[in-house]
Amino acid sequence: MSAATLSDMAVAVLTTADGREKAALSRDCAARWFAARDAGTPLEIGRAAPPDTPARPEKPELLHPRDVPRRRPGTPQGRIALLHAVAHIELNAVDLHWDIIARFSDVKMPLGFHDDWVKAADEESKHFNLVSDCLEAEGSHYGALPAHAGMWRAAEDTAQDFMGRLAVVPMVLEARGLDVTPGMIDIFRKAGIGHAVDALEVIYAEEVGHVAYGSKWFHFLCGRFDLDPKETFHTLVRRYFHGPLKPPFNEEKRAEAGLPPDFYWPLADRPAER
Ligand SMILES: [Fe+2]
Ligand SMILES: [Fe+2]
Hints:
Layout: H1 6-14, H2 19-38, E1 62-63, H3 76-103, H4 111-137, E2 147-148, H5 153-157, H6 162-190, H7 194-224, H8 229-240, H9 251-256, H10 261-264
Parallel strand pairs: 1-2
One fe (ii) ion is lined by residues 90, 93, 124, 127, 203, 207.
């Protein structure tokens, strides 16, 4: 790829099917973006049409969530299934972050917005590689098991709504990751699988940043349009996210990421336990 704009690079990642290749290209594009930023000659944002759905490998087979076999984390097979599900989430996240860059490139944003999502995409690519390494160390690989078909739904539902995308993807879905990751780390720690614990610890630490980027730029846009952030968040999540949010919430990490309790508790399926 020569003299690409940031949007061209985003589309190149989105149209790369193989997981390892997508992750490698994503990391390469991020390195180019930050090298140009450091040199004081930022790449142009440009305009490029992202695909409706990103290219994905032939395997894993994508199934309706109700048809994905239930996993029992107390067994080696269950732990592999859990890692496989995480790898699938990470690959989807690579695409989600490049997609927000390309899809909403017509909205003028500060360069810091692009810095944040390029960094997030780079980290998701690292996460996909780390979890794929874990799967391979356990004698499996990404693609060996079926995976959720519904992962791109949030992107489709918010394809026309920039603030809706920020509300649902980083501030709901990635925040959910903060709630459930400590439990996953526990499972692998109890099973004595150190490399998976290490990978999940990296993911857990870096995901706080992604939620924080979501909150930062959501609040920025609320300020630009003189909207009340909490009310707007509730309206958009109810419009685009299907079903209530599920407690328990990781209030400490959510706070660290700039998500106050009055943003998520009113959307939960039971009242706050105080
Ligand atoms: Fe991640
Ligand atoms: Fe993330």
